[in-house]
Amino acid sequence: MLRITTAGESHGPALISVLEGMVAGLPLVANDVDVELGRRQQGYGRGRRMKIESDHVEFLSGVRGGQTLGSPIAMMIQNRDWKNWQEIMDPAPRPGDPERKRVVTRPRPGHVDLSGMLKYDRDDARDVLERASARETTARVAAAAICKRFLREFDITLGSHIIHLGGVDAKRSSRMPDDINAVSDQSQLRTLDPDAEKEMIERIDAAKADGNTLGGIAEVVCDGVPVGLGSHVSWDRKLDGRLAAALMSIPAVKAVEIGLGVEAAKRKGSDVHDEIDPDDSNVKAGRVRRRTNRAGGLEGGITNGEQIVLHVSMKPISTLMRPLGTIDMKTREPAQAVAERSDVTAVPAMGVIAEAMTAFIVAQAFLEKFGGDSLAETRRNYSSYIASLGDRKGR
Fold first, then answer.
1. Of 217, 213, 211, 166, whose CA–CA distance to 317 is shortest?
2. In which element (H, E) is residue 229 found?
3. Measuring CA to CA, which of 91, 115, 243, 393 is 20 to 30 A from 131?
4. How many domains is the chain built from?
5. CATH number of domain containing 142
6. What is the chain's Cα-based Rg?
7. What's the domain range around 337?
8. 163 CB-near residues (< 8 Å, 6+ apart)
9. What are residue 220's DSSP bridge partners?
10. Which contacts qualify for 68-72: CB closer than 8 Å, 24 or more apart?
11. Helix (H) or strand (E) holding 313
12. Beta pairing, strands 168-169 & 67-69
């Protein structure tokens, strides 16, 4: 089972990422990961933290001579801001137990501050928010970068772009670029619509001046996936459910749609389902092709050979520079929420993170189906399956 485990706090010394279950023999260098970490840090409307950090991965185990070993791949990403927070985040006990600096007793509405304080019996919400911070997703992107590298060996690619931000919709071209990221990464907001981008930037500037934040929607596209990943036989094996769970785990994400998503509930069946035609050239899909892709590449929990298309919706960030009302947990008196350093919007970064989580789940399902302890073995199993799809006769 392919698995990701992460550790670390937002302002701690470092983040740790462990990817377990990756095959041996996959070509891998640090730059494969660093490129994805850099993409996660881009985007107009980000806060000062992105100017401090310049994320770089250090392999601690599982890689030798530019290839994976089949053992757990452990990675470290140092937090450069640690030097400014060492006294605050030092794990050592405090002599005489004096109160640390930057104690948070005024929980932010919309954040996990209050619930975490109550659940874990903490007096300082910093014990909660440091781990709940979206900084943790850096470690996920690092592990998922290896999953993306693995999927490329089988001509499976992923891309993402922003289709909505702060009340502005971006037009989706009828012909999408072959390499979505090559185009979207050139945009300050990772959108494919230059006109919409200008208006989005205006909305971000206005929100910043008002001490407010903005949310939005990213579209993730996974291309080249063969028919047959996932399963219909048990609820927890359905790939659409697993994708939705992974994407909903991203901080501030509140909704996930596959294909038409919510729109499908408003249409008649004849305007929702994808009719099927024979196509001997489309072997990965079983020598057929859908006339449309309203299902978003998944039917009954199984990939159908079309593109996986996902829409991921992120609410506005909970930390406002013009704080909302709360209470002080020390005094139980009304107060204004703490104003931690924050972004006006992180929707462009969220798209990269959503892309990463999709890559992880698809790679996990791929290895479940094709197995193998080495890349060569997995490739043999995959090639045999694709050949069987091409040879399949009508029954």
1. 213
2. none
3. 243
4. 1
5. 3.60.150.10
6. 22
7. 3-391
8. 169, 170, 172, 191, 217, 218, 219, 311
9. 160, 310
10. 68/22, 68/23, 68/24, 68/25, 68/26, 68/28, 68/146, 69/24, 70/22, 70/23, 70/24, 70/25, 70/373, 70/374, 72/18, 72/19, 72/20
11. strand 308-314
12. unpaired
pLDDT digits (tens, 9 = 90+) for 32-85: 999 999 999 988 876 665 556 689 999 999 999 999 999 999 999 999 999 999
What is the signed CA dihedral for 27, 30, 35, 41, rounded to 10 degrees? 140
Q: How buried is 129 (Cβ within 10 angstroms: 0-12 exposed, 13-18 middle, 19+ buried)?
A: buried
Q: How far is CA 301 from the centre of its chain?
A: 20
- Total Cβ atoms within 10 A of residue 280: 9
pLDDT tens sequence across 123-179 = 999 999 999 999 999 999 999 999 999 999 999 999 999 999 999 999 988 789 999
Rounded Cα distance, 84 and 72, in Å: 32
- Would you tell me how many other CB atoms lie within 10 Å of the CB of residue 59? 16
CA-CA distance, 361 to 356, in Å (whole number)?
A: 9
> What gap in Å lies between CA 16 and CA 135, rounded to an integer?
12
Report d(CA 172, CA 307) in Å as an integer.
Answer: 15
